[in-house]
Amino acid sequence: MREKRSNLVRETKYMQPGNDDFISAIITKSVLLHNGPYAIYAVNAQLITWKRHSQLATMSKESSFQIVSEVNLQEVDNAVNQARKEISTRYDFKGSGTNLVWDKEAIAVSADNEFHLKSAIDVLQTKIVRRGISLKALEYGKVEQASGGTVRQKILLKQGIPQEKAKAIGKLLRDARLKVNSQIEGEKLRISSKSKDELQRAIKLIRERDYNIPLQFVNFR
Q1: Of residues 178, 83, 157, 177, the one with CA closest to residue 123
Q2: For residue 161, which of 138, 189, 182 has the smallest C-alpha distance?
Q3: 188-193 and 151-157: which strand pairing?
Q4: Which CATH number fits domain 63-70+161-218: 3.90.1150.10, 3.40.50.2300, 3.30.70.860, 3.30.470.20?
Q5: How many CB atoms within 10 Å of residue 186?
Q6: Does domain 73-157 have CATH number 3.30.70.990?
Q7: Interval 197-212: pLDDT, tens
Q8: Is residue 65 classed as helix, strand or coil in its secondary structure?
Q9: What pLDDT was estimated at residue 120?
């Protein structure tokens, strides 16, 4: 038995992941359960299995976060209502027919002329910023002529990270040679790394660039 165990130790030495006590226990168990030349194959199989589990455990220790571009619709609703209230009480808007319509996807602003239209949008932007929403979330359509000689402009809300911008962020991190991985998850982007310091560097680098959309860094784990 002692001679078999010695042979097994020599045969499996090159495979040791670094835990001698654990490997010794595997060898002892295998010698007791197996006879003849097949014992070495049993030990190797168990060591390979343990090594794979060890690698998976190491991978699971990676830290990560998500990059998203989201707008709080309730805060948009609050901003629109506040803008309506201010416009209705201001003397310079009296008789202009200025109106804001919010349908959860876009804000339609209308007025009797472009001057009042622009002024109404200025009020809206102020309220939006005060509600903690970035103006980068707004995408402005063309000013259009509407019925009754009025003008109208639609403002869309941008939600989610477009594919081309997600790819651009991934390229930025690769070009910077940061030890991080990026993965596109629909309209979100997950950044992972074994180093939390590298993740912080990634966040700093991304914040220094302007992608013309609001970005939030969430779901740290």
Answers
A1: 83
A2: 189
A3: unpaired
A4: 3.30.70.860
A5: 10
A6: yes
A7: 999 999 999 999 999 9
A8: strand
A9: 97
